[in-house]
Amino acid sequence: MFRFLFLLLVLAGVGGYFTKPTEAQHREAARAALEQIQHDAISNMDLGGLVESSIARFGDEGRYQDYYLASRYTVEVNERPVADCWGAFTQVRCTPAAADVAAAVQGE
User: Fold this and answer.
1) How far is it, in rounded angstroms, from Cα 92 to Cα 36?
2) Is 45 helix (H, G, I), strand (E, B) or coil?
3) Which neighbouring-strand residues pair with 85?
4) pTM strictly above 0.70
5) What is the chain's pLDDT, residue by residue, as a tens digit (108 residues)?
6) What are residue 82's DSSP bridge partners?
7) Is the dihedral of CA 7, 20, 72, 68 positive or negative?
8) Domain limits at 13?
9) 76 CB-near residues (< 8 Å, 6+ apart)
10) What is d(CA 71, CA 48) in angstroms, rounded to the nearest whole number?
């Protein structure tokens, strides 16, 4: 039983390594997330969020990190994270950066 579980774990690890999203896939997902952030900023009349997301979207600057089985892509403006993307098994999920979410909760 343990051999089967170990084999299953090894196969999942190998599959994760070979299906990890590329930097280009992360960049596309981050661009879509920044468009959504920009749309939300326009809807809420948030001038700061609109300017920040526009700079990040057109600046196309991001940091890609490879964790062997998963990958991460972070978009920053003035050393402040704007969008954070995680990817594994060919899937990429982008969200507003945690610092932005915490600031929004605190009302900053």
Assistant:
1) 15
2) coil
3) 73, 94
4) yes
5) 889 999 999 998 888 889 889 888 998 998 888 787 777 777 767 666 666 666 666 666 788 998 888 999 998 877 778 888 999 998 999 988 765 545 544 555
6) none
7) positive
8) 2-106
9) 56, 61, 62, 63, 82
10) 29
User: Residue 67 has which token pair?
Assistant: 């964790």
In the structure encoding, which two tokens stand for residue 42, read together?
């326009």
Evaluated on CA atoms 87, 63, 81, 68, the torsion sign reads: positive
What does the radius of gyration of the chain's CA atoms come to, in whole angstroms?
Answer: 17
Give dist(CA 1, CA 105) in Å, integer. 47
Token pair of 40, please?
A: 């939300």
Query: Where are the strands (E) in the chain, listed by range?
Result: 62-66, 71-77, 80-88, 91-96
> Strands 91-96 and 80-88: what pairing?
antiparallel
Provide the domain count of the chain: 1
For residue 83, list its beta bridge partners.
75, 96
